[in-house]
């Protein structure tokens, strides 16, 4: 069993590394529920596979799949030596929100720390709203994903009573964070003191008012080191909406929030994954795709956003464990 840690991680010398700091590996789940993914998740599985393969060019990837899906996923990935497939039960595949938040601390004679240098924070998960407002009515398997990951990696676990999804926070590794819904669709740190902000020039787009408000707040803010925050804008695609054909392809089971035709999709280029030496970002077949061409683009990202998120939402980085100095 993984060691259960008590106390406040920050008081014990732990911090949450920035996403651009070195990773040991990336964790992903495998989608299959037919009431969230269209056509029994066939199209989105292709996109998850492309995402995993793209990330594996930069760092190891572990894909967690149910017992039913494991043989298929294992065969699909058998020739990709930097991808590991393990069996794991889950209700859906949003590993940014259900996986552990990894924290690290320095070790060695100079720090006086000889114990664990990495741990996972196991937040409470309630399917984004609980029984009254959640996206599905049973998240019992999702609640155990963080525990299983730290057990596999033999990493200590900090149990936490706070309800929190990993996609709702971003850090720069130096004491900063932003929280306002799922911030990973709106903005993110790209280096200390610099924020990438989703933007539109269309004043008639409801997103315009939100982006302007965010720009105003960020421009007047300083980070934890006292630096004035610099904002870099990146245009959002679309607007993109769920088509009737796409909505029809999603099963109605009564156990998940239905996807109605015409609903606007939360499409954003900010929802990317920073890997070791590269960035893996969504491609929407939109005119603004070219603005993000300096990174590896994953074709078919619309399939992920149909389910409610994108590449950042389906991944969780595990930072490199600090070595004793």
From TrEMBL:
Entry keyword annotation includes Ribosomal protein: no
Position of the signal peptide: none
Highest taxon listed in the record's lineage: Eukaryota
Family matches, as InterPro entries: Peptidyl-Arg-deiminase_porph
Keywords of this entry: Hydrolase
GO biological process: putrescine biosynthetic process
Record flagged with keyword Hydrolase: yes
GO MF: agmatine deiminase activity; protein-arginine deiminase activity
PANTHER family in the cross-refs: AGMATINE DEIMINASE, AGMATINE DEIMINASE-RELATED
UniProt name for this protein: Agmatine deiminase
Phylogenetic classification of the source organism: Eukaryota, Viridiplantae, Streptophyta, Embryophyta, Tracheophyta
Encoding gene per record: gb15350
């Amino acid at each position: 069993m993984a060691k259960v840690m008590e106390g406040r991680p920050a008081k014990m010398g732990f911090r949450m590394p920035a996403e651009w700091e070195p990773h040991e590996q990336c964790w992903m789940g495998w989608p299959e529920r037919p009431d969230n993914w269209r056509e029994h998740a066939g199209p989105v599985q292709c996109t998850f596979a492309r995402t995993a393969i793209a990330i594996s060019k930069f760092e190891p990837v572990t894909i967690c799949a149910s017992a039913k899906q494991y043989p298929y996923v294992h065969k699909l990935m058998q020739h990709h030596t930097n991808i590991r497939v393990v069996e794991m039960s889950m209700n859906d595949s949003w590993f940014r929100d259900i996986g552990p938040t990894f924290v690290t601390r320095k070790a060695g004679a100079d720090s006086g720390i000889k114990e664990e240098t990495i741990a996972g924070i196991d937040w409470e998960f309630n399917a984004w709203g609980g029984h009254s407002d959640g996206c599905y009515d049973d998240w019992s398997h999702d609640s155990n994903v963080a525990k299983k990951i730290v057990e596999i990696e033999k990493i200590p676990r900090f149990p936490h009573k706070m309800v929190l999804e990993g996609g709702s926070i971003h850090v720069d590794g130096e004491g900063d964070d932003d929280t306002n819904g799922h911030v990973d669709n709106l903005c993110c740190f790209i280096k200390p003191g610099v924020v990438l902000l989703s933007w539109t020039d269309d004043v008639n787009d409801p997103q315009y008012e939100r982006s302007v408000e965010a720009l105003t707040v960020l421009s007047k803010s300083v980070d934890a080191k006292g630096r004035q925050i610099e904002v870099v804008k990146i245009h959002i695609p679309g607007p993109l909406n769920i088509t009737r054909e796409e909505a029809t392809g999603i099963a109605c089971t009564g156990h998940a929030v239905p996807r109605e035709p015409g609903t606007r999709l939360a499409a954003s280029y900010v929802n990317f994954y920073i890997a070791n030496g590269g960035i893996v970002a969504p491609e929407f077949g939109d005119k603004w795709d070219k603005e993000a061409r300096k990174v590896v683009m994953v074709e078919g990202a619309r399939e992920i956003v149909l389910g409610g998120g994108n590449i950042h939402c389906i991944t969780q980085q595990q930072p490199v464990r600090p070595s004793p100095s």
